[in-house]
Amino acid sequence: MALEIKYLSILSFYFFFLNNIIIKNAESAGKIIINKIGV
Question: What angle do CA 18, 7, 24 make, to 5 degrees?
């Protein structure tokens, strides 16, 4: 049971970390696109 909780916490942390990376990349990509368009 303790092993399952540990696994789930690691998994949720991994997904949280991955989401942060995706959001930051999307934001920077959006800024680059806006700069290239010249808005």
Answer: 10
**Position 21 pLDDT exceeds 90:** yes
- Inter-CA distances, 3 with 6, 7, 14, 16, 27, Å: 5, 6, 16, 20, 36
Neighbouring C-alpha atoms within 13 Å toward the C-beta of 26: 6
Q: How far is CA 8 from the centre of its chain?
A: 18
Burial 12-30 (b: 16+ CB within 10 A, else e): eeeeeeeeeeeeeeeeeee
Q: Whole-model pTM above 0.85?
A: no
